[in-house]
Amino acid sequence: MALGLFLAARLSGVLVLAVVARAAGKNPLLLLGRSWDSVWYLRIAAHGYGFTQHTSTGVHSDLAFFPLYPGMVHAVTTISPLGGGAAGLLVSWTAAAAAACGIHRIGLRLYGPAVAVALVLLWGLLPHSVVLSMAYTEPVMAAFAAWSLYAVLTRRWVWAGTLATLAGLARPNGVAVAAAVLAAAGLEVWRRRGRGVSHRLWTGAALAPLGWSGYVVWVGRRQGDPLGGYFTVQRLWGSHFDFGRGALSFTEHMLLHGTRLLFPMALVIVGVSTVLFALLVVDRAPLPLVVHSGVLLLITLGGSGFFESKPRFLLPAFPLLIVVARALVRTARARPWHAAVVAGALAGLSFVYGAYLVVLARSPL
């Protein structure tokens, strides 16, 4: 049921986007498969790394993009007749479905079937959930993150570490999954006072950060600076961690001078996400879910550049929706009509805003 609702939500969003795209004289599949970062990933999938673009805003190297997603796209184009864009969409759509299943399993284990279904539905109706239907990396990272966290909750440590490695190869903020695995492993060791700890736990903990750190070091060595080369590449893109100074400066400018819709919307989404994280902590959610969401939120809040992309960076932080899912289930039991209205409003916002982002906004997602 949960997967069916998720697929129905995303299909409805794509249909609304297609109508808007056709009205604007644009090809919806081209927009979904070859927009912004998708173009960079598809180029890597087809030709490997080594492309650099010099623009008025900086020197943009494809080394900023992690390798797992283009590797998967390349594999699909190798074994099938699909082109790059279609292969990218196939990978993303499959990963989004896998992520929904993993999120459902986590919700089911911790809070029961009703909350699990609500959690998946809410994730599919986020304002930026249109990205889950695009040739982007968030669905892939979310899938490996969800199943890694589920493996932690069920004490399958080697699986948790292996999946965290893959999440770390998918996106820069995939390091959040490794942090969650390491935090959970550390708590388990502390509880046992170091006695009777399975070798599987140590193996999983050792595996967890290898994907992210391995790629960062590989880029660094290629740039001649093993520890700092990757971060130099990111700075040249205008992206770096400055503890939120850049974001605060941009927010001040936006509030004083006004701007396009997507920027204040991004501010609202990040603000709401911060409140939801506080509620997740107060609700005493399991440590790996708190750490995973907290690291993603920290990276989003503290990172400078691409302010409009911050809601996308938070898509894998699905545990933030747990408090909302539980509240929605309580409302549905007491006042079903109210819950239906809330779900309908979220769906309308998601579908319309998603179409606006992809078809009309003309800004990086």
Strand content: under 5%
Class by SSE composition: mainly alpha
Strand order of the largest sheet: 1-2
Radius of gyration: 20 Å
Envelope shape: globular
Indicate how many domains the architecture comprises: 1
Pick out the low-confidence regions.
Answer: none
Measured as a percent range, the helix fraction is over 70%
Assembly state = single chain
**Strand elements, count:** 4
| Helix count from the secondary structure assignment | 18
The largest pleated sheet is described as: 2 strands, antiparallel
Note the gap between the termini. Answer: 30 Å
Nearest-integer average pLDDT = 93
Would you list the SSEs in sequence order as H and E?
HHHEEHHHHHHHHHEHHHEHHH
Subcellular location: Endoplasmic reticulum membrane
Pathway: Glycolipid biosynthesis; glycosylphosphatidylinositol-anchor biosynthesis
Transmembrane segments: 82-103, 201-220, 261-282, 289-307, 313-329, 341-361
InterPro entries: PIG-V/Gpi18 (IPR007315)
